[in-house]
Amino acid sequence: MTTGGNKDTDPEGQITLEVISEAHRFNRWMYETIEPFCTGKILEIGSGIGNISAFFLEAGHPIVLSDIRKNYIEHLERQFSDHSNLLGIVQMDLVDPDFMNKNVSMLGTFDTLFALNVVEHIQDDHLAIQNACALLRKGGTLIILVPAFNFLYNQFDRSLGHYRRYTRKSLKALLVRNNLKTLHSRYFNLAGTFGWFVSGKLQKNNTIPGRQMKLYNRLVPAFKMLDKLVLNNAGLSVIAVGRK
Prior knowledge:
Blueprint: H1 11-21, H2 24-34, E1 42-45, H3 53-58, E2 63-67, H4 70-80, E3 86-91, H5 99-102, E4 110-116, H6 125-134, E5 136-147, H7 155-160, H8 168-177, E6 181-188, H9 191-202, H10 210-218, H11 220-229, E7 237-243
Parallel strand pairs: 1-2, 1-4, 2-3, 4-5
Antiparallel strand pairs: 5-7, 6-7
């Protein structure tokens, strides 16, 4: 899960990832939400510092990690290079003008590709999904998680370099535009909307305060129940799963 819009520097994004890295329950919840859709050879786009990558590696999934930033690539190499099921760590820009040539050896080779909190950082999200699809084999699965609802856009989004937030409808439309069949769509983490609004909108914080994240992490079991109660019809994030 990577953050930030600038390819070279990402101070707010790195602070956010480090704060979230301490929220083990939350990271596991996100992993458990997408893992049932992940099969075969997997590519993670925007691995960041490996908050979600760790769960896939520990579970034995054959996976390639990637990020746009060199410092994150170096961090991933230090942290995970001893895992036998790690198939590689690559630097990748989904909207690189020379994307196809730079990644020719990986085209059509993955069974699953997931990008968590990545696409909202990319101005041309259609091109990002188009290039992601090129990496999937026929019948492969694409999993996208992005921030939900534009009315929640606030100081957090601005400091993290978000171009937009999505709804189930707009995210599904992005998949359809790229000839993907939608297999699953849902909102995720309703409780997070309240913290995001208060901390980012009212308090105008640039990054998630560590104390708030620690409190949130302790309450994750209750928040999971809340999502079930509302049938995943609202949340801080929206997830869509498509098939090529």
